[in-house]
Queue: 2 jobs
Job 1
Amino acid sequence: GAGVSQSPSNKVTEKGKDVELRCDPISGHTALYWYRQSLGQGLEFLIYFQGNSAPDKSGLPSDRFSAERTGGSVSTLTIQRTQQEDSAVYLCASSSIVGGGGAEQYFGPGTRLTVT
Amino acid sequence: AQSVTQLGSHVSVSEGALVLLRCNYSSSVPPYLFWYVQYPNQGLQLLLKYTSAATLVKGINGFEAEFKKSETSFHLTKPSAHMSDAAEYFCAVRRGGSQGNLIFGKGTKLSVKP
């Protein structure tokens, strides 16, 4: 079946511009996660959506970052007024509620963001 | 707070040699632990996971890991390395012991020499 997809695969933007990154989770997965992978910081959690509950935004690094999930499916991560330190690979993952804490998170291929 | 420490950012082994990648965790609740692999320019793929059912966990591609509570460790092993095992490996713990996000270690890059 189809896995997690992300678009675009690469994005180059100028400092100060806004960007939107999209994630299509596996159909039926109620949980959706955004992570950021950069050379200096490794893999960092950004935000987590579970069903209709309020999202856990505790990992967002600043108020320039926001995310929404429409209809419990597709999610968009928005970065406003991009800075060079935002350059990273942004990974999306989804998981089923089956298995509780042991449920596997399935990762997408990521969006490589470069801020010039 | 939960955390994961991976000892060794780079490990190099010869083809056919034992692979040992170290992971130690800190958790105030019974942990769910995971090993993921990332091949160049690809996303993360699950190798194996510990969910308290068994302390010795077998995963894909011949990898296995043993959960040792007394040592707070979850080291990843493979008896005989293949060239195709060259990748970056991440150990992770589930936050809060439930369906929260994963907390990752810094990763270990495995090189396999012919």
Job 2
Amino acid sequence: NAGVTQTPKFQVLKTGQSMTLQCAQDMNHEYMSWYRQDPGMGLRLIHYSVGAGITDQGEVPNGYNVSRSTTEDFPLRLLSAAPSQTSVYFCASSYSYRDTEAFFGQGTRLTVV
Amino acid sequence: KNEVEQSPQNLTAQEGEFITINCSYSVGISALHWLQQHPGGGIVSLFMLSSGKKKHGRLIATINIQEKHSSLHITASHPRDSAVYICAAYNTGNQFYFGTGTSLTVIP
């Protein structure tokens, strides 16, 4: 039982490049979400999904795309990386969208130069 | 204005001390989570509560729904408790709102 697997752990991009951050969970969780963590600001929700085929925007969705074609996977795509997207990204999942424990991936430290 | 406010931002304690971290929130919630983030960056869920009190080992979490306030207590603190503790309010709109965290250092 791997929990939430997030890859890569570190990534450096040039401005304008695109990339996908991978997130997979093997706990049959309905709810998955992506956050970014910036110094002094706490975690902020980018996008979330309450089940396969369903996604919605969070607090800071601009510049990011998501899809949820399967229950297990919830990739986050950066369409055209900008220095403002330099951050630490976390994926999380929980069994349902309310009242259950959240499990987090190990994080991806992304630097856009 | 942050929907979730934590205090203190930084806390240094001697080993063995009783520690309290406070969290106030302004949104309607279905659950309140306490998370722990270690220096390596990983985040672990400590508690999820919607009423009353929960205890796990030396950690105790309480919530007062009427006052929109939660506390995390650590009894007999230990250097391995050194981490950032994050309060997260899960609101009725399916979104998490996070506090900025309390950085705890426990000195031997």
